[in-house]
Amino acid sequence: MGGESALPSWVTIISGYSSIISSLIIFSSIVLHLKNYRKPFQQRLMIRIQLIVPLFALSCFSMLKNPESLFNRYLLESIREVYEAFVIYTFFSLLTDILGGERNIIIMTSGREPVYHPGVLKYLLPAVDISDPTTFLIIKRGILQYVWLKPVICVSTIITELIGWYNVNDVSATSIYLWLTILYNLSVTMSLYCLAMFWKVLWDDLKPFKPVGKFLCVKLIIFASYWQGVVLAILNFSGALPGSASTKGHNTNIGVYIQNALLCVELIAFAIGHWHSFSYKPFNISAIPNGRLEFYYAVKDMFGVKDLVHDFQLTFYGDYYKDYKRFDSVEATTAHPESRGRMSRINQGLRYHGDGKQKHWLPNNQSPVQNTTNVRSTSEANALLYQPLLGNALQYSPSLNSTGTSTRGIYPSSPKNITPPDSPVVPASAGTFNLINGPTITDVLNTNEISYDKELLDEDEIYYQNACSVINNYRLDQNEVKKLINYPIVDEVVDGHMFGFKVKKLRADRLRQQQRNHNNVSIDGHKNSSYGSIA
User: Fold this and answer.
1) pTM across the whole model
2) What Gene Ontology cellular component terms go with this record (predicted)?
3) What percentage of the chain carries pLDDT values higher than 70?
4) Which CATH architecture has domain 9-243+252-317?
């Protein structure tokens, strides 16, 4: 066949135009993202996912046009397949970032009931407790192993094809093509299964972000490229495809031509799906009324790889996930004391107080698992604030003196005031807190030294309520809303900070207006007094 396609010319023409259309759709979406680059961490990942469509279009059409080209077979095709694996990991990173990052996910899911595997796997595999950093690392490695293994498969394919051992028409037990296909199938199945379990465990948290379309876009384009190829290879081997008989004895597969032609046409639907699922609209000025990166810096950020290198290193070595203190929060509850994440924290020195919720970490020299990092819990950090005033009387949070520690975090039915092994001995003293010199906050507020008459708190409350009533609508087409939304907004903490910024600005404007009015009155009074003296 030489370097020409085995399909009719009209198929090649339709495939070419389809590839151009799908690429234009994606490039338009990417440009709009770059012009509305307000959340770099999320949009960078979305752009990386969308780039798979033009890469598929270029690869499929090139292979359809000239399948014997060394550039197409050994370089372009390999890049496409490796990037295909990379997109699965990128989608996982996007879901993680949407939920606030890995640490936030682990803290957020603390105390939840572990999720069982589907079908018979629930009898073979332990339930998934994603609040355990080790379990989270296993899921992440299960997804990332496909990215690591795919380049090895591609290099093995190239080497065996160069020495004549690789034949796509041979699916016998001694076929290199068959075993590499099986290895590839196992790897991609494990990766997608881990991604699906991550999806299942956090489904309720992901629902507000409408992730179904995103998941289908990523999964379908990979399955379309893989399973279409497998089915067509079997049909070609069995002689069911037209023209398959003419390829017997040659390292050519008519199914490969058909697969590339089908993908070129299917990419239009995939491009439209990517346009809607990874849209720029949630990042435009109407949705996020704050600044954006300039186009040049947005492009530069899009092609940055430092985040990938850093994350790959953390996942490969895994030491970051072994320190449970990094993923601790005082808000975590004790709803499921049998969970793996909870027991692992207990083994590293976590102790709960009498109420079962407040907690502290044992010093490193008392912890059953030694650790070199010194990350203090919230209760320890708060206790240290009082330590200069209390001397050595207080080493941990005040609740330790008032309630004592117990094993309630592990066994909820255990009685209070029973100290677990290795807990620090802190002498309780009724007058401990009397050692603090100076008045309390309540005493200061109740004194007559501070006058609140000029604070105008009621007026601030009116401004606050007005801001609450309109700010979440982001109706920037209305002038009154434009005047109201003229303060900085931080992407990830909008709900917590935006009203405070507004009230502060309104108060400053009011003070400036009062000062301006006072100056005008003074000038007018001076003029009137001057006129009176002349008269």
Assistant:
1) 0.61
2) membrane
3) 59
4) Up-down Bundle (1.20)
